[in-house]
């Protein structure tokens, strides 16, 4: 790119270009290897270095070798009303002895800073501000404080318990991980975005107790021996037999076989004297049943029901198994649920009545069909009779009963007349 800025005293022009690589802007005004259709990007900065008598400029910027230019009209403002001598406040207290010009402090005697409050000979305010940046791209004091003589003074918070700290105001005590909406779960302190947990607690938000007491089962095993304690809670796993455990301490196993079948013979022999166990075997049962009118509603118990083949009645019982002591408590309902007796006589009479009624219905249907068929045949006969046409000729083989013969020589009646 070329321009006529050199002919304009008091102006300085700089270029930053993104050439064909198209990744970053570089301090250059030359891009090579450009062909028709290629696109490049230029960033142009105009700066008034000092004031001259001429205040209006026309800058022409364009690619070398092409008759195309960008015309920029520049007007340099050198004088401000607030810079007049009668408006300058000299030795202002707000500027620590400097001059107040247009609301901005003009420092003296080597002082620098926004209010000339810093005695740093040879340094500028911009240089001091750079000392308040953690990186070149960072904001001054991370945008949470002010730079005072090259040092950050962090802003106070409305909540006095919340504090911003750090060399560049990069730390605080209110932006740490939370658990249940509580900073560090109230089990630690927030230090520069990280929780420092109190003794006995761990985790990113100090939400996990180190102790495993909350995972201890009644049998003295962690998570009933069917899981692992993570962050104060049991994480159950699948057993080697494919059973799945759940519950606060992995004590629930819906797919595990219950002790209902195991306790069934003892319940039958003790309560009703039935089942496969004889009297001697029944005495060896590890528990004694507790007969009740109705089964109680208790936690951590298992309900069972079976049909007694001796009478086809259903019986119910409830057991509680204590794994710590390996003892069982069994409650059995005193009465069974038996099906009502089968009414044999009613069934037989019903079958007979059904057969008789079915026979009558079949006879009626047969009779109805017969009547309908006869009526149809009779109607057909009448139609044929009415439509018939009979010949009137005599039967050729028919002979009448009397025959008359005349005697040609008989003249009896004629002679009498003579």
Topology (elements, then pairings):
Elements: E1 2-3, E2 11-18, E3 41-48, E4 56-62, E5 70-75, E6 99-101, E7 104-106, E8 111-112, E9 118-119, H1 125-130, E10 145-148, E11 151-154, E12 164-165, E13 171-172, E14 178-179, E15 182-183, E16 188-191, E17 194-197, E18 201-202, E19 208-209, E20 227-230, E21 233-236, H2 260-271, H3 279-283, E22 290-292, E23 302-308, E24 313-322, E25 327-333, H4 344-387, H5 412-417
Parallel strand pairs: 22-25
Antiparallel strand pairs: 1-4, 2-3, 4-5, 6-7, 8-9, 10-11, 12-13, 14-15, 16-17, 18-19, 20-21, 23-24, 24-25
Family: Belongs to the integrin beta chain family.
Pfam family, one: EGF_integrin
Keywords: Cell membrane, Disulfide bond, Glycoprotein, Integrin, Membrane, Receptor, Repeat, Signal, Transmembrane, Transmembrane helix
What does this structure look like?
The protein has helices at 125-130, 260-271, 279-283, 344-387, 412-417; strands at residues 2-3, 11-18, 41-48, 56-62, 70-75, 99-101, 104-106, 111-112, 118-119, 145-148, 151-154, 164-165, 171-172, 178-179, 182-183, 188-191, 194-197, 201-202, 208-209, 227-230, 233-236, 290-292, 302-308, 313-322, 327-333. It is α+β, with helices and mostly antiparallel strands. The chain is flat and about 195 Å long. The termini are far apart.
